[in-house]
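Contributing: when you submit paired examples, paste them exactly as shown. First protein:
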Amino acid sequence: MAEKPGIFPTFFISGFECSTFVWKDQGRRNLTCETQHHLYAREDYQMLRSLGIAVAREGIPWPLVDKAGSYDFSCIDPFLAAMAEAQIMPIWDLCHYGYPDDLAPYTDEFTRRFADYCRAAAAYVTARLPGQHFFTPINEITFFSFAGGEWGWVAPFKNTKTDRFQLRLSLCQAAIAGVKAIREVIPEARMVHIDPLVQVVAPLDRPDQIPAAYHETYVDTFLAWDILAGKKHPELGGSPEILDIVGANNYSFGQMEYREHGPHAALEPHDDRIKPLCELLKLVWERYERPMIIGETSGMEGGRAAWLKDVIEESLAAVNLGIDLHGICLFPAVDMPDWHTGAWLHNGICDLHPEGENLKRILHQPYVQELRRWQKELNRVTELDTNPFSDPVELQDVIKAAKRLQTQPDQNWH
């Protein structure tokens, strides 16, 4: 029996880019198809199995399965079969920036339809995949509200701060209704609510923007989680049980210099205004005291291995501060295109190399080698055994490694 059992069967988690937004100048997109994950599901999940990863974030495309209230979930059958064969436990993303064409997110009908869809999705997957079930009802509510409410990148293509705030409230209301609907079907289902870790600073020559930057860092970043937890807008029905597990995403572009209009500018790697990841994780932990994972993280190009080293060292420093950290999600498992340009980002465990009409998966070996090193350092499995779900992660091993290594927070990005 584990001395301190974790929530998941492995500490390292992964996932697949599964956005289904309506993009500003391209119509409906499906990133699962753009990366050919739908064609390579079996290979993709066997790859995770070989790397000792038994948990993956996977999407159910709401706008594609919901036919005005009736449902066709057959598009996820290849994923269900591949996960069952590889013994991978999913965290189902039920709305990854996309919703049906006949809905508007500012309406009560949006909330009702989303709850009905969540109920149907939960029934579908639990009937076909036994075991514990995890869901992310609406992915990155805060970022979604920026992208669709203020920047006009994705539907509903709004472009004011007021629109952004209203969209966030609507998404939170739908997410809370979705959690309740899922638990009507699976009372023991766990929820992982994903949003970015953000730090915004004022330009050095604009001290007048310090209050706005502070508000975005210490108020705006937390509003969606606050609503889900019942800390803000309690009339929407949030509670600590609704928030459940906090998934904090960490990317270098999450630390930014404030801009009044449009997305903020990412800080350069050695900017002394950058805060250590450990410090950002501590802010989230002190606010909610809920189990946490790093919901997404990855470096780019040749910096992936160094990025992983930095994230794990920061995470262990956070564990030494008492943070209840249950996993780190290496996201994505396979490469993904830049939404704006279509260029491959080279941020996955696997790169994608075109061979005719196919996208061949090629492991980025330095990234894999760094993962292997940390699996051994933390006494984690490097390959799944015949029953990876038989025992949860022994988090005491992670705690012991954190105490032994005594890693220190570092503000610089690799």
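Second protein:
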Amino acid sequence: MDPSAQASVAPEFVSPRDAALTRTHHAALTRAGALRLDAIDLLRGLVIVLMVLDHVRDYVHEPAFVFSPTDLTQTSPILFMTRWITHLCAPTFVFLAGVSIFMQRANGKAPADLSTFLLTRGLWLIVLEFSLIGFGFNWGPPLAFMQVIWAIGASMILMAAVVRLPAHAVLALGVAIVVGHQWLASLVDAAQLGMWTQAWFMTMQPGPTLFLRGFIPYPVIPWFGVMCLGYGLGFIFRQAPGPRRRSVLTLALGFLAAFIALRAINGYGDPAPWSVQSSAIMTVLSFINVSKYPPSLMYVLVTLGVSMLLFLALERVAGPLRNVLLAFGRTPLFTYVLHIYVAHSVALIIGVLGGLPAFWYFDFLSRFSGATRGYGYTLPVVYLTWVAVLLMLYPLSSWFARVKRERRDWWLSYL
């Protein structure tokens, strides 16, 4: 997820309708004083809401300990979609991080200053992944579970080197990585790399951590490719509202059309081909059941295509929902770290009240392997718990969003 993105737009013509929305919903400024693009914050806020659902399901849902919700031999359509919709989170966050970096450069941040910020911010995110975040997920002995914060942090460090390149060159690099990663990875057998095996797992393909107990589900290079896409396409989000909407719609439809065409022929682009199932709905689920670890070309196309459509829809969101999404979307790192501890604590409480042993929630990540049935709750309880966690998060996220809006301390850019 991108807990680091700041979305802004250049001075532009604003229609009366857009001006009214801006006045009504208190448009915020970036730390550099540029106008923020609310739709980006709203989209980020929405995927934070979905991310909370995914992690609550991990802690609360009984089948989460037994089988993958995208396993078509065991899942149900509603369970599959509960998991699938959360596939939008990581690529959207990473893509928007790339857009944010482009915005900072376009708004006049010197390349040297931007590189320094990306380097230090990336290192800070990696430190958080191995400390507060890792402990919050596990509540146990040290365990390296290198997830999206690690991938974003490492990608930012790489971006520190490429932001001096023209945006179209960065876009070409992103396309090359997203399209070619699967092919390149297929040429290498990690078992034959010897001392370089760990580096391969950290950069190219998921694998265990050899230096500490844990696992690397987010190798950095394919996610860096997604961040490059965001940077290279960032110019779209600086357009005036009308052209921007047309450009985003074209981008979304292009991504989705490419996904459907490539997926239909079951060719290159995802290591898991789809197949006809016992019913039409399960066949559709097979068609969209794409690979996240690492993100395949098909995965990137369909998730970013859907996210761009959501971007357009969210521009028209008003009222309390808008306020909630903006609070989350403008405090992504704060909300991300906070939600881990809130969700884990709520899961412990309802688990113990339901007769589950408290020890289950400590050293939690190690219990996914070989778990037996009997722990956890049904999907309706998952959804109720999700809503409860969001209600707990909103006041704190709203408070911190106000702090960031009213103050300009340098260290707030790292939170």
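If you have annotations for the second protein, write them as plain sentences, like these:
The first strand starts at residue 144 and ends at 145.
The chain has one domain: 16-414.
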